[in-house]
Write a structure and sequence with these properties.
Length: 380
Amino acid sequence: MYDAIVIGGGIVGASTAYALVRGGARVLLIDRADRGRATDAGAGILSPETNFRDPPSWFEFAQRAVRYYTALMEDLRSDRAGETGYARCGLLAVAVSEDERPAFERARAHLFARQETRGLPSRGDLYLVSPSETRRLFPPLGDIIGGIYFRNAARVDGRLLARAIGGAAERRGLTTMVGSVERLMLAGGRVSGVTLGHDAISAPRVAITGGAWSPAFGEQLGIRIPVEPQRGQIIHLRMPGTETSGWTIITGFRDHYMVPWPEGRVAVGATRETGSGFDPRPTAAGVREVLSEALRVAPGLANWEIQEIRVGLRPLCADGLPVLGTVPGIEGVYLATGHGPTGLQLGPYSGKVVADVMLGREPDVDLAPFGVARFQAFNR
């Protein structure tokens, strides 16, 4: 018998399992390794300070989530987990055409008003930059009309990070299994385990961390989990012999970005295809959208090689906030899903705080705004 079962092995599931085993629990992680898992395709941008669209509850949670990366990286180093791709490289938000100027000015007003109110980031960490300075930070850029630079933004490789966290958890005693959980074992308003094929596996606590596939358990739990897949297509470009390790992340005002990696690689993306269903194929229209926007902002990438196209199905929640915590009326079941396009930014911390609740600890953040109970109108 296990103390806990985690369903889903993406970044949220791996992080939940890691925190549980570090807390002394005997844990089984069950993963189907579905094609199109968001973790494997995400850009991994860590920069809530430059987000100006999401509500305060998201921002406060995201601030904690990114700060948690410092402790997580130290834990992984202690556990000799291997490479994660984590690095601080800065982020530059740019407007390149006149139609973007109003959005740029709104972002500028919002970010610097928040900076003035909070005193963070410092003026030395978040500031306006000149057009000539932007090309020093990211040489392929074309002409721009405005730029905002945040020095402390970071990025992480989702594939490497999930592998590092999972490996560290296994060395601490985590058991992993490839398979599909058919049902939760429920009786008397509490969970006692799961069924996997013809086998029943016992545990008094179960975490559902299945990303876009998590709503499959809603009917059995008597709730609707309003999360759906949103397809995101991202393209990795490569130019051998180009030193890119010192370049900064680029974001624009049409929901696209460019993330530099060492050894002449830049990831550009991404589409946000709500209503895509569970269809993780790259498409002609998606590739055209991504490349057109990348070359509009950074025409210097025109001759770069297309190295790889990645497609992820983001678990997009109806109100844009993740779903975290307990399930009303069911003892022992916990949810951690619905992170949408910010899974790598929020996922490790989400896993950690849900694990805290599972271990009977008081989390260091109020999870009420993220509970599934907020969707009472959806639930039966």
